[in-house]
Amino acid sequence: MAKVNNGLQPAVFEWSEEFQLPLETNAELDRFEAWLADPANDRQKHALVNTISAVGGVDLKRVTWNILSYLFSCPLSRTINWKGVNGKRAFHRMASRTLLSRK
Fold first, then answer.
1. Which candidate, 59, 70, 95, places its Cα nearest to that of 12?
2. Where is the DUF4806 domain (predicted)?
3. Can you give the pLDDT at residue 103?
4. Could you report the per-residue pLDDT of 45-71, keeping only the tens digit for each?
5. Using CA atoms, how far apart are residues 9 and 90, in angstroms rounded to an integer?
């Protein structure tokens, strides 16, 4: 995998809106989720998936970790878990989840 990535950074995705990745606040995350849910943005979502696919790693765990750290800042990621317990946001219900498995 290291040979494929060659240490290059993923291409910068240009937004039509004012998103800066990684997302820093819950308000930015809410806007991003609404943007992902809008079918009018399918073409840009496909470009975003292509950009994210350039994020590398040595195994599935590291690739997933790197993609999530590309999308969410550390403080924001502490407010998210899979089920949404303890007052956190449920990742399994988020539109961002589809970016990990989209083809």
1. 70
2. 17-95
3. 45
4. 888 888 888 888 899 999 999 999 999
5. 29
> From start to end of the chain, where are the E strands?
80-81, 89-90
SS3 89: strand
Interval 26-46: pLDDT, tens: 999 999 999 999 999 888 888
Asked if residue 16 has pLDDT above 80, the reply is no
What is the C-alpha separation between 8 and 2, in angstroms, rounded?
10
Residue 29: Cβ-neighbour burial (10 angstroms; 0-12, 13-18, 19+) = buried
- Rounded CA separation 19/76 (Å): 15
For residue 19, give the nearest of 78, 62, 90, 71 by alpha carbon: 71
